[in-house]
Amino acid sequence: MGITSFYFLCFFAVMLILYYSIPRKFQWGFLLLCSVAYCLLAGQGALLLYPIFSVAACDMGTRQLSRTQEQKKRRGILLVTILVNIAILFALKYVNFLINTANGAAHLFGASEDPFSTVHFLAPLGISFYTFSLLGYVIDVYYGLAEHQKNGLKLALYGLYFPNLISGPILKYREQAEQFFVPHAFDYRQVTRGLQRMVWGFFKKLVIAERLGVLVNTVYGSYETFSGTYIWVATAAYAFQLYTDFSGCMDIVLGMSESLGIRLPENFRTPFFSKSVAEYWRRWHITLGVWMKDYVFYPLLRSKLFTKINKKCKEKYGKKRGKQLTTFAAMFVLWFTVGVWHGGDWKYVIGSGLLHWCYIVLEELWAPGFARLLERLHLNAQGRFVTGFRILRTFFFVCVGDLFFRAASVGDAFSMLAGAVRHFDPGILWDGSLLLLGLDGIELAIAALSLLLLWAVSLLQRKGSVRDDIAQKPLPLRWLLWYFLLFAVILFGCYGPGYSATEFIYQGF
User: Fold this and answer.
1) Pair 147, 70: CB distance under 8 Å
2) Among residues 151, 158, 197, 303, which is most buried (max CB within 10 A)?
3) Closest CA to 135 of 182, 82, 92, 211
């Protein structure tokens, strides 16, 4: 039962009515029942045992941490709890990654057949999201940043909250958990604002992402036929498909939660206006970046190993350069982890991880030289020309990473890059060749106009909340705007009998 389906809308409508009808002290328990019901209706019955086991392991671990004062024992409890959760995640998502890597290495040394057979496990919905949210809770309890949740069922709600299982965001217990358990009175403005955001999410997913997906699938499914400019067009389309798909899901999830009185953290902040790859990742999948910095990057820099590396680098290369090299080394581990988080395949490790590490390192090393170049050319670093150039440069770098992310394999990604460079023909942009990619003229026009609307809204979002601005308009204009958006989804959305909207891309992570 996908969240863009009619059945889910019925499920949510009934849940919303009952949520505000029952006594408030039972609301959190009702949400837990709804979360279990959603997993069952989504065909996750037996797989529900995995997140339940993870919640139980974290509950047991933090319970022991709250009772233990001896630091050595506390460290052991933390390590065991983390390893149990990581072991489940690894077994369900990354065993084949190691097997395929080992098979590939064997072929390099002359093996004619795969020495190891892959295994196939079904992973529960949102396993990477709930695992990281729970691990953050355990680590915070260990360091005294959060208190142990004495009620195991409340911790289960935090770990199993069904909107969050779909595609995140990754939660911080000390910042978001309490609102799951407190009573929420019905608030008309809050509910309507949540529903408004859901409509915007449906617009992104059903009107834009689903259409762009047709074009992307056509080219990436037969890149030997469509090379050159077609690959660049499809890759740019995929960048927007990925954004509208993922951020559209976030709008639906955050809007749904807002209507229940629960504020989840934002996961996007107009990422395509970023002037560097580092800035892009501060605006894209924000909660993953925050989690990685808090629980991987900073602890790594403070570790004994990196303290020693930092000391030796400073002695050999000087204070500034030594610190920079140590930071780059920690960043390598960080970005490798980010890549692996996205999936058990080297295309993810490269496209979402190490390639971005290279970008950020080169940007930092190049920054002084770029500043001197602008000074010699008498160009304002904050001017429109330079800002536009940096935005386009960042978008290009991100697209190359997305090409690896979307390609079937690393080998296919390199083949597509080679074909894109060898056969560049911009004439296809205006000679009607784009109509060969699965969308007719009307469908392309709808996609283009929808992207223009998305761009206009993104521009306004840089100045503040668009919903707040609309809320200040006269009542007839407010309803006209929201009804326009609703009917745009109804009239132009890709759905209906015989059509099955694709799963959200990040739902697989």
Assistant:
1) no
2) 158
3) 82
